[in-house]
């Protein structure tokens, strides 16, 4: 049995049994030739898992150490008997930390301002939980969950949230099909609904926002932006980089604990589907039982430092991302 892994996945070395043949490569160097006789591949977002990669291979399991799966052609995999496992929720506290820290650096007032959360999955729920602990008023929109009959919260229409929030943060997958496609779900008309000086935060996927139309709004001074995810990563828009209040290299969820969770979930998937035993020691993360406060968030992370690094080194997007010094989440700091 052979397993191919992305060499940039942290905490993975030495955890797969020696009896298993293993090879690792940078994510964008995992090719059809290299995986043709592999039973499983463990990847990140840089490996495009589609027919071009998988056709004529022996791969039966794709494990991605990420919450997102838009780099995987899931319908093709399902049609050809390939299982796909991701790591949902692994980075939710890290992303919530990033969003809240960015809000506070922007001058967001927890007593007066309203936070709009678009998408109420693992990340949106953790963010809403922490915001509520701090007394922040939140408005939440998630059309798919609402249509599915979820009544766990008072869901609001997207337009209502956009009109009535002082900051809006996006936490949706990137999809182009189905009843609620998210590709360019935020464009000129949606931006036009936002309050003057509203802060728009995108730490989901770059394609969720129409970058050309966002840039026009930023030039006009209509709104401000925090941009962590970009449409053509790692080849990012240099103009948007300069116009955004905070610009970072897709590291919103890059916490030490989040990476441990992702690797543990990847190993669990390998165990389940390949019937092997891996070493998951020291991957379990138990946070302190403490109520989140503004001070805890601010003491744990300053996104302006990461923004300055990218703005000063725009061509080093991938290097800054791959060599990122994982920060600790607020309840571990």
Per-chain topology:
Blueprint: E1 2-6, E2 21-25, H1 32-35, E3 40-43, H2 51-54, E4 61-64, H3 74-79, E5 83-85, H4 92-105, E6 114-118, H5 122-133, E7 137-141, H6 143-147, H7 158-164, E8 167-170, H8 188-191, E9 198-202, H9 211-219, E10 223-227, H10 238-243, E11 246-247, H11 256-274, H12 294-300, H13 303-312, H14 317-322
Parallel strand pairs: 1-2, 1-3, 3-4, 4-5, 6-7, 6-8, 8-9, 9-10, 10-11
Which descriptors apply to this entry?
333 residues, alpha/beta, six-stranded parallel β-sheet, five-stranded parallel β-sheet, 14 helices, 14% strand
Would you mind describing this structure in some detail?
This protein is of the alpha/beta class and 333 residues long. It is 34% helix and 14% strand. It is built from 14 helices and eleven strands. It has a six-stranded parallel sheet with strand order 7-6-8-9-10-11, sandwiched between helices. Strands 2-1-3-4-5 form a five-stranded parallel sheet. Strand 8 (167-170), helix 8 and strand 9 (198-202) form a beta-alpha-beta unit. The model has no long low-confidence stretch (mean pLDDT 96).
């Amino acid at each position: 049995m052979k397993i191919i892994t992305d060499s940039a996945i942290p905490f993975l070395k030495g955890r797969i049994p020696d009896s298993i043949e293993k090879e690792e490569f940078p994510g964008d160097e995992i090719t059809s030739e290299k995986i043709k006789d592999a039973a499983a591949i463990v990847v990140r977002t840089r490996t495009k898992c589609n027919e071009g990669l998988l056709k004529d291979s022996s791969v039966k399991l794709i494990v991605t150490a990420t919450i997102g799966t838009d780099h995987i052609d899931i319908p093709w995999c399902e049609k050809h008997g390939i299982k796909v496992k991701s790591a949902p929720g692994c980075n939710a506290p890290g992303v919530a930390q990033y969003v809240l820290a960015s809000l506070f650096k922007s001058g967001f007032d927890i007593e007066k301002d309203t936070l709009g959360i678009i998408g109420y999955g693992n990340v949106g729920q953790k963010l809403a939980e922490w915001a509520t602990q701090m007394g922040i008023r939140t408005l939440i929109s998630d059309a798919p969950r609402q249509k599915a009959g979820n009544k766990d919260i008072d869901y609001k229409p997207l337009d209502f949230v956009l009109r009535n929030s002082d900051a809006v943060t996006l936490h949706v997958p990137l999809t182009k099909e189905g009843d609620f496609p998210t590709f360019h779900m935020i464009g000129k008309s949606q931006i036009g609904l936002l309050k003057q000086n509203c802060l728009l935060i995108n730490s989901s996927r770059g394609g969720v926002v129409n970058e050309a139309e966002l840039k026009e709004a930023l030039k006009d001074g209509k709104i401000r932006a925090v941009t962590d995810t970009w449409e053509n990563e790692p080849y990012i828009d240099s103009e948007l980089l300069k116009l955004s209040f905070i610009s970072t290299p897709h590291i919103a969820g890059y916490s030490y604990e989040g990476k441990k969770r992702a690797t543990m979930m990847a190993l669990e998937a390998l165990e389940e589907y390949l019937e092997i035993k891996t070493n998951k020691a020291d991957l379990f993360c138990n946070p302190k039982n403490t109520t989140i406060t503004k001070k805890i968030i601010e003491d744990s992370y300053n996104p302006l430092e990461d923004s300055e690094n990218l703005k000063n080194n725009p061509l080093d997007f991938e290097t800054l991302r791959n060599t990122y010094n994982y920060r600790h989440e607020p309840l571990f700091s």
